[in-house]
Amino acid sequence: MMSRERRWSLEGMTALVTGGTKGIGHAVVEELASLGATVHTCSRNKDQLNECLRAWKIKGFRVTGSINNVGTNIKKTTREYTAEDFSFLMSTNLESAFHLCQLAYPLLRASGAGSIVFISSVAGQVSVPAASMYCATKGGMNQLARSLACEWAKDNIRSNSVAPGIITTPLSEKAMMSQTPLGRPGEPEEVASLVAFLCLPAASYISGQTICVDGALTSNGFPLP
């Protein structure tokens, strides 16, 4: 039986976090590192990455970095999307996650207790205005998490999606605030805490789930008075 201390620690474990220099990605790096994990991250901006690496070194975190790309959105109506928009959003938001899982599989299997956590969106659960393609990529990501949870369970690899609502990041959607019962945007750290939990041994029986961090947005069937 694993000790309580071990169940709530990431000491000795290694994590890869894409887009780790700002927003949710940055918060995830700090949360995982604070729990003892060695973290590798990447960014589209070399200067931002180097600045973060210096700050993390001062904090005593074990973090290394490289340059890469992460998710994005193009706000258009369905009729306005071009074939290029479709290819760009699919390749950036979904295809990249799929191929990263393929590449990481040998390492996840070798670890004996791998955990994949996709950063999805409530847009994969409910309709969001002028974002049908973005919604499709996030819905696809949620299904990928479920599929991998079943296909790779024999290798003791878990797979889950975390679906943030309105979070105070550069991609925040302020227009949906009135539909959020808690009445405020979430903070990146509030998403990162769930991501970290899903990586912990304490979450070893949680797999194939999409968990919303949205202030009850997706549960709010009717607008509040």
Summary tags:
single chain; alpha/beta; three-stranded parallel beta sheet; globular
What does this structure look like?
The protein is α/β, with parallel strands linked by helices. The chain has two domains: 11-70, Rossmann fold (3-Layer(aba) Sandwich), CATH 3.40.50.720; 76-215, NAD(P)-binding Rossmann-like Domain (Rossmann fold, 3-Layer(aba) Sandwich), CATH 3.40.50.720. Helices cover 40% and strands 15% of the residues. It is built from six helices and six strands; from the N terminus they run H-E-H-E-H-E-H-E-H-E-H-E. The protein has helices at residues 4-7, 23-34, 46-59, 83-111, 132-151, 188-199, and strands at residues 14-17, 38-43, 63-67, 114-119, 157-164, 210-213. A three-stranded parallel β-sheet has the order 1-2-3, with helices on one face. The protein has a three-stranded parallel β-sheet with strand order 4-5-6, sandwiched between helices. Helix 2 (23-34) links the parallel strand 1 (14-17) and strand 2. Helix 2 crosses helix 6 and helix 4 (83-111) packs parallel to helix 5 (132-151). It is globular and about 50 Å long. The chain starts with a helix and ends in a 12-residue tail after the last strand. Keywords: NADP, Oxidoreductase.
